[in-house]
C-alpha cells in the first residue's frame, strides 16, 4: 500500500482499505471509479498478493478501474461471463440521509450504475464532506448524453427547472468524453426533492443515456473524517 502523508489522502485510504477488508475469497467484486475507490482496488491487490484473499474476480466500471485492476493484479471479467456480483465498492460525490447518491464526478456513472446496481452488496466509500441533507446542494448532477442530442437535451433540462452546462476538459480545450464516447451535461437544480422521480424523468429525455442519481441502490456507506487533525472512519 502506498504511504500517504496528507490527512485527506490517508482518510480516503482508510475507507478504501476498510471496504476492501470486507471482501471474501471467491467473490466477484464490482470495482468503482475515483480517487477513494482507487485505494480499495489497491488494497484488494495487496490482500491477493499477501495470500489473505484468494480467487476474486473484478468487474470494472471504467477504463480507470481496468488500468488499476491490472496494475494491482486483480483478474477481470465482463458481465457476459458472470451471473452475479457479490459486492461492489464505489465512491460518491454526494450522499443523503437515505443513502441516495449523486455520482459521475469522474464521468463514469453509467457503467457504475450498471455494476453497482447488480451487486448483492453495494458499499460506498466517501469522506464526511460528501454527506448532505438534500442531493444537489453541493454538486451538479451529471447527465451522460449522446453527442448529437446535446442541444435538445439541454433545452429539455431547462424546462425541468435545471441549469445545464456542458462539462469541459482540462484547460477547457474540448468537452469531456466518456468511456462510451458520449458527453456529460452537469445540471444545477435548486433542490432535488424527489430523486427517484427526477432520475426517471431525466432518463426519459431522448438522447440521455444515464444520469448520476443512484436511488435505493446503496447498502452501506463507509465515511472517513478528520477529527483533531487525525483521519478516522
Ligand atoms: C466517478 C464517480 C466517483 O466515484 C466520484 O466522483 C467520487 O470520486 P472521489 O472518490 O475521487 O471523490 O462517481 O464517476
UniProtKB/TrEMBL annotation:
**Listed Gene3D superfamilies:** 3.30.70.260, 3.40.50.1360
Q: Belongs to which family?
A: Belongs to the ribose 5-phosphate isomerase family.
How does it associate, per the subunit comment?
Homodimer.
Highest taxon of source:
Bacteria
Q: Does the keyword Transcription apply?
A: no
What name goes with this protein? Answer: Ribose-5-phosphate isomerase A
Q: Does the keyword Isomerase apply?
A: yes
Q: What is its EC number?
A: 5.3.1.6
> Which Gene Ontology molecular-function terms are recorded?
ribose-5-phosphate isomerase activity
What residues bind substrate, as annotated?
33-36, 90-93, 103-106, 130
Which UniProt keywords are given for this protein, alphabetically ordered? Answer: Isomerase
Q: Name one GO cellular component term.
A: cytosol
For biological process, the GO terms are: D-ribose metabolic process; pentose-phosphate shunt, non-oxidative branch
Q: What does this protein do?
A: Catalyzes the reversible conversion of ribose-5-phosphate to ribulose 5-phosphate.
The coding gene here is rpiA
Q: Which InterPro entries match?
A: NagB/RpiA_transferase-like, Ribose5P_isomerase_typA_subgr, Ribose5P_isomerase_type_A
Bilayer-crossing regions: none
Q: Which reaction does it catalyse?
A: aldehydo-D-ribose 5-phosphate = D-ribulose 5-phosphate
Q: Which residues form the active site?
A: 112 (proton acceptor)
Pathway in which the depicted protein is active: Carbohydrate degradation; pentose phosphate pathway; D-ribose 5-phosphate from D-ribulose 5-phosphate (non-oxidative stage): step 1/1
